[in-house]
Each structure stands twice: as structure tokens, then as C-alpha cells.
Specification:
about 130 residues, 4 helices
């Protein structure tokens, strides 16, 4: 029989067991496969934040700090989303974050095409206006 007054011995050589601990807040250690760059959080920062219950993403609205915060969300966004919202599984999480990234790139592509079309038209309209 073991001694009930002896402290339990920790097994150091065992890797930590990661379950679905999403939505657990700051104390949660994200499982492997969560960390990485988030294009969705970078391009669609405040919209992504609302969709992933990561309210700190609303700081992207602040002048001057907002652009820095976009990069922070790009680096840490996936971890923040895992900690702040409950997900069905890691595969579900990765699938949704991939969709956010695709929509971020689609939005950038649309804005880029509009800029390519609008800037020359604007410059042409300026050359036709008489200067007084």
C-alpha cells in the first residue's frame, strides 16, 4: 500500500495532453496547429474580431496604434481566437480561419482592382479642370 502522506510524483517525460480547450480564456495553452500567421485577422481586423469574439481587435480603430495592432493580430490572432471562442475541434477551427484568410485576400484584391481603375480616372479628371 502506498503512503497517503507522500506527495504525488509528476511524470516530466510525458508530453502535455491537449484536448479541445478552446474558449477557456487566457490560461489556455493552444494545441499544436493553432499558432501561425492569420491573414484574416490582419486584413479584416475588426470584422474578424467580432466574428471570433476577440474584442481586443476593435483597437484597430485607434489612430496610429491601429496599424501596429493589425500586425499584432496577424501574429497572435489565431491564438486569441482559440482562447476566446469555443470551437468544435481543431479541424473546424482551421477550416474557419482559412475562410477568414481567403475573404481577407478577396477583399484586398477587390480594393486593389478598384484602385487600379479609379486612380487613373481621377488623375484624368484633374487634368480637365481649369485652374483659376
Amino acid at each position: 500500500m502506498s503512503n497517503p502522506y507522500q506527495p504525488p510524483v509528476a511524470k516530466v517525460d510525458e508530453p502535455p495532453v491537449f484536448g479541445n480547450n478552446s474558449g477557456g480564456g487566457r490560461s489556455v495553452i493552444p494545441p499544436p496547429g493553432v499558432k501561425g500567421w492569420s491573414w484574416g485577422a490582419f486584413w479584416l481586423n475588426w470584422i474578424w474580431g467580432i466574428g471570433n469574439k476577440t474584442w481586443i481587435a476593435l483597437l484597430a480603430f485607434l489612430p496610429y496604434i491601429g496599424i501596429i495592432f493589425c500586425f499584432y493580430l496577424g501574429f497572435k490572432g489565431r491564438e486569441l481566437a482559440w482562447r476566446n471562442k469555443r470551437w468544435e475541434s481543431l479541424e473546424h477551427f482551421n477550416r474557419i480561419q482559412r475562410r477568414w484568410s481567403v475573404w481577407g485576400w478577396v477583399l484586398l484584391l477587390i480594393v486593389g482592382i478598384l484602385a487600379i481603375l479609379a486612380i487613373p480616372a481621377y488623375e484624368q479628371s484633374l487634368s480637365r479642370v481649369p485652374v483659376r
